[in-house]
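Supplementary Note 3. Input sequence used for the single-chain structure prediction.
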Amino acid sequence: MSRNALMNVVVAMVIVGVAGAASANNLRNGTRFNGTRFNSSEMNGTRFNGTRFNSAVLNGTRFNSPMLNGTRFNNVALSGTLLTGSLIASPDSTCRSVSKGHDENVQGVPLPASCSACATMVCGLDSYCCTNWWDGYCVAEANDWCQMDSRDLIGAEMTVDVVNANDSQTTSTVKIRFDNVEQSPLQGDVYLHTVSYFSAGHYEYRCNFFGGCYLAWVPDQWLPICPFSDQDGRYNKAVAVKGAWESREGYQTFVAPNGQAYSGGGLIPGTQGSSFTFACTDGTISKCVERSGYKPWYGASYDTLHQTCVRAMRADYCGDGHSFTRPGTEINIYDYMCIEQDTAGWYGDASWDKSGAICFSFTPRYSTDSAGAAAIDYAKNRGGRCAISSISIDQYCVPGNGLGSYETVMNSPRQVLMRTESRCLNGTSCY
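The predicted structure, written as discrete structure tokens, is reproduced below.
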């Protein structure tokens, strides 16, 4: 208790509860929408994340001391889906520079309110700390008031470094604003962020209906990081997920900052400890968290299933980011941990691990139309494990092999972590 009687204490604690496991009672008659954004398309029929990768996208936002209103955060991380950080011992602090100075979480001489944002906060509520002595009460107050999470940042502006979409290596500085943070109605321990980014005034080349083109001045403005609504009509909502994701697609190998090789359309290795992504709710990264319950912070198995889900929802059969589905397609998705369970009993589509499809159960999604034909042709003619004689992917799944079992693919066993089913088979309409 403070010396100033019962001083109101602002507690910025991260609340992480464990919601019940998701079932397949999801959307439209117990099935989940595949694809991601309705009535439009991107990346061959689906939206990978829902955020525009070729603009000021918050994919791979660095944990490295983002700046909040001129003050750099310290110990920035994600706890569940809440961004957490501390103003104690900020890189911008000058508290150690004063005579016999010290950090805000250490007892000692009184600190000037101007030496840091944390000192300003503590001194504004408890002047004793700045006029008499920075005692144990002051330390306790700093540890309370100077710890923040996303919910404390509503209305705040922050400067962050984000991974550039064209190479997933270099970064750009982006100014963002937290407009709102709310609990997801679908998962109690998932939080949705409404975030805008600042677009500086610039000239834009425009053409009118009559063929005339001109330069138009676009003034400074704040734009949504998620410019499309999801299937529930929610606009500009995003889930914060650890790591940076590769938006590029096609059969090629990329190299992560840690030197590890990886393919397109997936999590970039080695980035989960240094960065996070605001995944828009109309995209598969968010859907696999909020709607399917694959929450990476629950542990390694959940993390692997989340990465597997992103590929499975997008029909990324070859595991290179190349999608073969259309927005609004219904699929039934279930996994070996029973987080999602088989409640539909539709036609088999494929078996999956986080690298992509292991095998086709019968025929792939859209096998009866041009998209399916393109998928099979692409799989047969691509290099690597997607080019095996005249059949697509590597093989057809062995009948009776259940979830958690192993399929031998190119002389290498791969564990079946997830399966998808579709209503598409032998001419049956997908809609």
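Residues 1-57, 387-394, 425-431 have pLDDT under 50 and may be disordered. The helical segments are 117-125, 128-131, 136-145, 284-290, 300-313, 370-381.
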